[in-house]
């Protein structure tokens, strides 16, 4: 199986190393590189879970990848972990802006397995071992200065770098921003439609009879009220309480008996 044109160093470190004879040499442990030229020279594997011995492989010893297995040729070089700690590398270095602001860490790199050239680095804001962390792309030509464990880039924040993979937090922020922009756009459109409706709607015309004063009804108390009378004077004997003519004819005097 042919090697891919590009692969991540994290993929190489997760693979278990086996030689042509099928002997197991452990899982990938560390990448060693030449930082000034941004080239990956090889990687080291851990043959056993315990012990300081490491197996160091050149990148051109990689034959092919079969799932989680990296098949290599020839024999490795044996060394100690203390020696590997002295090798320069940008993996795990802290990234700073040109103003000295801490941005994150360099956690991965996309390399060519044939030449070892680094296409770009991946930067994480938090611990790369946390699931759902975001990744930003850092081009080698953006790096201004590099020292052991420290990289300075010509950017002001992580927002100046292209986003490679959005994490849970970044996805939530982007979703909220899209909803705010959509709500603002809907509010502006509704305001424009309301302005157009108010502008195109004709105003009601006044025909001259709306300001006329209502005349009091003839049967209302105000209709037969004199100029010197009050409202309660007209209601001293309301119409529904006026005595009828029959009641007047049937009225009796004080010297008459009520049964006569």
UniProtKB/TrEMBL annotation:
Residues 193-260 are annotated as: Disordered. Residues 217-227 have a biased composition (Basic and acidic residues). Residues 244-260 have a biased composition (Polar residues). This is RNA methyltransferase. The lineage of its organism: Bacteria, Bacillati, Cyanobacteriota, Cyanophyceae, Synechococcales.
């Amino acid at each position: 199986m042919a090697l891919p044109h590009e692969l991540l160093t994290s993929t190489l470190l997760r693979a278990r190393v086996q030689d042509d004879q099928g002997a197991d040499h452990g899982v990938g442990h560390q990448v060693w590189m030449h930082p000034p030229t941004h080239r990956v020279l090889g990687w080291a594997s851990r043959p056993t879970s315990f012990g300081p011995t490491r197996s160091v492989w050149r990148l051109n010893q990689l034959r092919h990848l079969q799932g989680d297995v990296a098949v290599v040729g020839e024999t490795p070089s044996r060394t100690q972990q203390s020696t590997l700690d002295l090798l320069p590398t940008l993996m795990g270095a802290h990234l700073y802006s040109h103003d000295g602001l801490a941005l994150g860490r360099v956690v991965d790199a996309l390399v060519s397995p044939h030449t070892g050239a680094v296409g770009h680095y991946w930067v994480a804001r938090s611990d790369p071992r946390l699931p759902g962390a975001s990744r930003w792309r850092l081009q080698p030509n953006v790096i201004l200065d590099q020292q052991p464990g420290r990289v300075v880039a010509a950017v002001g924040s992580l927002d100046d770098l292209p986003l490679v993979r959005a994490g849970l937090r970044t996805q939530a922020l982007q979703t909220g921003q899209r909803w705010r922009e959509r709500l603002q756009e809907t509010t502006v459109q509704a305001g424009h439609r309301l302005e157009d409706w108010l502008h195109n709607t004709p105003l009601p015309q006044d025909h001259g009879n709306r300001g006329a004063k209502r005349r009091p009804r003839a049967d209302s108390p105000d209709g037969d009220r004199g100029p010197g009378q009050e409202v309660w004077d007209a209601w001293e004997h309301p119409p529904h309480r006026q005595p009828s003519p029959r009641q007047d004819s049937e009225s009796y005097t004080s010297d008459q008996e009520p049964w006569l």
